[in-house]
Design a protein that fits this description.
5 helices; alpha+beta; three-stranded antiparallel β-sheet; single chain; 39% helix; eight-stranded antiparallel β-sheet
């Protein structure tokens, strides 16, 4: 309750109440309103700069930031899983695939090399979560580079596999006479007694005795480069070029089942057993050439003989007997 003030009036010899001026009342009221406004404004500023009170937009932005942080955590977990899968693929690539196809392993430092030069993440700087965003982006870039390198490596392995498949199909890997049709393996590769001169002479192939007209099979995929009677001693003979430096020769045939330039596959019938040329009896003289040098054909029968059959053939082939041509 405000105090009432009085003054002494000498004219009336009494006390009179002091009435405040209206202008002063208005001044006090204005000062009160102004003070209240300033106090409220200052209070609002203080509250807005603390975490005590947030506007609806700020609350929405905070929720959005938390959601982004959560999404980044999920993304990093997914990247961790991808890295584990990539590590497994890279290990198999280096220690299995590339070893099998005789390719050099890709060095670890090449797979995980960083990115030099200018700062490629400069645009991500200056934000509250810049470190997290930059670290995740770098991790993504490294994974992407690993995947590109691994993809190129698998492309290379695919090409090597195709070449390997062609090579395995081309190598003369089966016996040219079926075991059921074979009378015996008469003579092997090495020094043998010549059937005509009885002198010791190098025998450059293997002789398979079989009845006249027994089918002869191509020992590997290739192309017929000769089918004639124009090579001394071989009589009617066929030569197949297999690629990769390999050529197989089939001599003393009775007749041909292919022509020059024809492509054949392993197991195709190319001719029939005979005794043409320098031959003592019906048989097939079989040779394998590698880079223009004649090599022992016995090393190439893994595609048609069992271990026991190969062991028996090896015993016979190593005996220094008389050849049939």
């Amino acid at each position: 309750m405000s105090k009432v003030k009085y003054y002494y009036d000498p004219d009336t010899l009494s006390y009179r109440k002091i009435e405040p001026k209206k202008s002063r009342k208005y001044s006090f009221a204005a000062l009160f309103v102004l003070g209240s406004f300033l106090s409220g404004f200052l209070g609002l500023v203080v509250l807005l700069n603390t975490n005590l009170v947030n506007t609806p937009r700020e609350l929405s932005l905070q929720r959005e930031v938390k959601n982004y942080e959560f999404q980044f955590e999920l993304l990093n977990k997914k990247m961790e899983q991808i890295e584990q899968v990539l590590d497994n693929i890279e290990h198999r690539d280096n220690s299995i695939y590339r070893v099998y196809f005789e390719a050099n392993p890709i060095p670890e430092e090449q797979r995980r090399a960083g990115f030099g030069g200018v700062n490629r993440y400069k645009t991500l700087e200056g934000f509250n979560n810049s470190e997290m965003i930059m670290a995740t982006t770098k991790r993504m870039d490294v994974i992407q580079k690993q995947m590109v390198i691994q993809s190129k490596s698998l492309d290379e392995i695919t090409k090597l596999a195709e070449e390997k498949e062609k090579l395995l199909a081309a190598i003369p890997a089966i016996q040219p006479i079926n075991n059921d049709d074979l009378t015996r393996m008469a003579s092997g590769y090495g020094w043998r007694s010549d059937p005509f001169t009885k002198a010791r002479k190098m025998h450059w192939g293997m002789d398979f005795t079989a009845p006249q007209g027994t089918p002869i099979y191509a020992s590997g995929d290739g192309k017929v480069i000769r089918a004639d009677n124009n090579s001394s001693g071989y009589g009617k003979h066929i030569r197949i070029e297999h690629g990769y430096g390999y050529i197989s020769l089939y001599g003393h045939l009775s007749q041909y089942n292919v022509r020059i330039g024809q492509k054949v596959e392993r197991g195709d019938i190319i001719g029939f057993v005979g005794s043409t040329g320098r031959s003592e009896a019906p048989h097939l003289h079989y040779e394998v050439w590698k880079e223009e040098e004649r090599i022992n054909p016995i090393n190439f029968y893994y595609g048609s003989l069992t271990a026991e059959e190969f062991e028996n053939m090896l015993k016979i082939a190593t005996q220094e007997n008389q050849s049939l041509d």
